[in-house]
Queue: 2 jobs
Job 1
Amino acid sequence: MNEAKDRYYMSLAIDLARKGTGRTAPNPRVGCVIVKEGRIAGWGFHKACGLPHAEAEALQRAGGDAKGSTLYVNLEPCSHHGKTPPCSSAIIEAGVSRVVAAMKDPDPRVSGRGFSMLHEAGIEVEVGPCVAEAVRINRGFIKRVIKGHPWVTLKAAMTLDGRIADESGWSKWISNEWSRKRSHILRTEHDAVLVGIGTVVSDDPKLTVREVSGYSPRVVLLDPSLKVSPGANIFRYGKPLVIASTRADSRKVRVLENAGAGVILLPSEKGSPALSDVLGCLADEGINELLVEGGSKVLGSFLSERLFDDVSLFVSPRFMGEGKPLCGEVRWLALENAPSVFITKKTLVEGDLWIEGTVKCSLD
């Protein structure tokens, strides 16, 4: 098999992996293609945590044609018993002759062990085709298992002068219909969406996915003193995870738990739990990718502590003057201390400018 064909079939596996977006956490997104004598004999992708892995689905579809075939998968096959049996064993039992993987699994339970099992069984193993794209689609999983934090994207709709709401806190609608629809697509691409108590009190958002297909992410609320009402929309449309201070009233904890929320209490020296601790907690909850939607104080805190990987900004072509800034309560002493991002994409649609940027060293 030549390199061009390996890249072609690996790209198909990666496309399949994307179909699991929003459902696989804490697992990675994985797709698999089995090729026998120049034709696709089987394919599969990991649909959700607890369901069969991509390799198992592909092997089942291939049946007897798996013997002597080449199997393409965007991540090293697992070698441990979890909620499903190890894929490396299934590949060996099926008689696959060659395995092509885009990258090694960073999970310490796997990392190289799957390849070793395959080698020992006499299966040819090659690693590397389409590795950059394989890393990108699983960047949240990789960061969580390596650094203990989810991948964090900061999202906001703002005016040209950086306002996300007027003085009263009203923000409907700064962005146009296209931008709002794209914001909902962003939600489908993340495992959880995080807001502060100020946003819930002022806007009472649903934080669900609407007008587009896809799954709604889990809602995470930063509410140190547990001011949220169990009648808020986030309780009507799901079971939010509320993060509060250990100093919070235990009676309020019980009220929210009875309303269906999960409540996690973290130490707080300055009134609110440290964001680094919050992210560590969310990683423990199995969240690979986190979308931070604000408000101003929360966005400013993530920016000032440099605890973000991507930004997604929808800029409306208008000026507001007085109003709530994108970065509330943030002070940088000098320009050289201000965090910066690499702009990766700019899209102009119906007047709104959508800017995407990333912190280059997020996975270094």
Note: Residues 84 and 253 are 35 Å apart (CA to CA).
Job 2
Amino acid sequence: MPRLRICALALSLLLPAPIAAAADADPLVAAPAGSVRGVVERDVRIFRGIPYAQAPVGERRWRPPVAAADWDGVRDASQFGAACMQPKPRAGNIYAGSLPAMSEDCLSLNVWAPENAKNAPVFVWIHGGSLMAGSGAEPIYDGSALARRGIVVVTINYRLGMFGYFAHPALSAEAPDHVSGNYGLLDQIAALQWVKRNIGAFGGNAANVTVAGESAGALSVMYLMTAPAARGLFAKAVAQSAYMVSAPALRDRVNGMVPAEEQGSDLAAKLGATDLAALRALPAETIADKVPTTGYFPFPAIDGKTVPRQLVDSFDRGEQAPVPILAGFNSGEIRSLRFLLPKPPADAAAYQAAVRAGYGEFADMFLARYPAKNIDESMLAATRDAMYGWTAERLVSDQAAAGKGAYFYLFDHGYPATQEWNLHAFHASELPYVFGTASRTPPLWPKIPDTLAERKLSEAMGDYWASFAATGKPQAKGWPDWPDYTDDRGFLHFADTPRAGHNLFPGTAALHEAVVCRRRAAGDIAWNWNVGIIAPPLSPKAEGCQ
């Protein structure tokens, strides 16, 4: 027994020391909202699961976010908060990654900061996922590599699907401003307001915030650029694979689209809820599981307040935030999104006939860019250019016209697994290169080889993005200067290595701009979704259009 007691005593003396040392090393930050204790991992301070808004549950379901109450004591920030409610991913989905447990109580954010950060640039990331899925906790968005470049990275959660984008006449009636919907967008604004108030305590500069996102996150960036309530909350914007498409109005039929309130009433009926009390009583799991089967697709609604008008109209009027922008798209966007494509025509003659029926006087231009000799590749390219290419170039050209820095890119990089799966430069494939998370992609993601060439490309992209967040001009030591878009449609081409270029896909942007202009003028629904062989007959020339 004495020997056992001596051993136990020895262990008791040995074990607490490293544990106590680890506890002492955990970073403590006293922010205006309250004190938080995070962790240090490889010289980066990480704070996870910090609430920026109260739980949107019960009577707060489908209401604007309410700022989280300040707290006393020290909050543990070592673990991610819950992911927002969302449907289970489809089998075989290459984008499905690991998520925390889901809950309606999900409005939290995460911070990665250099150990000695002081007045550092801030990079706020909005995840993609069609406004239906995703989380700021996904490993592919780990901010450590960017933080080691001297910037403070913030990732956020926001309400998704019906929880975040649901308008209904009864909701509008009870709201002081008589509008409803756009709760997910309001969450993003609330997160930016939290950053403005608190990020200085983490070593960030609240006056030097870049808001960034990919896909639906980039769509959100555009809405934030035009939202009056978001003005002044960020100084720069990054939009990766954004898509500027028509949105429903709250109550009126615009571009042939069913009003958002009418869509909401129909959805409530399908769920068997006849009033707000019944809607708010629905279990969150029921909503997450059943709504995707109804055909409902979440989207912001034009309410005249948070979303003043169609995005493209706001940009046409120059109403967007006058900030520098970095925007681009991937050469293989649609390769992983083939569900967006219609059934291909039987042969080249049928393809050409369909294009001529839809594009009229622009048909020759369309067929020159998207020829019938390879229908599959032409359909992939046309849909990519109409949705993602046109949007990215629209963004950089509009910001350049406003006298702001505008930087355009094409991500065109592949590797053996993407070539094997015919997924060269697929949608979102640039993300692990920007974040330096090649080893942390979802399980079914085409595996990125751990080679010097892949690491160098990732290092270059991380440097460009971090320098843009810092200064508004993307630069990477040892790599080409990134030309401003105003320099003959300058862009940076990310293939095996970055290289500068000019005049990407000559004539393509002008073609799609002309077609979209006419369709908008005619009030056509989904004016840049219906592309190629499913394009409706082009309307006559309208004032201000080619």
Note: Residues 1-24 have pLDDT under 50 and may be disordered.
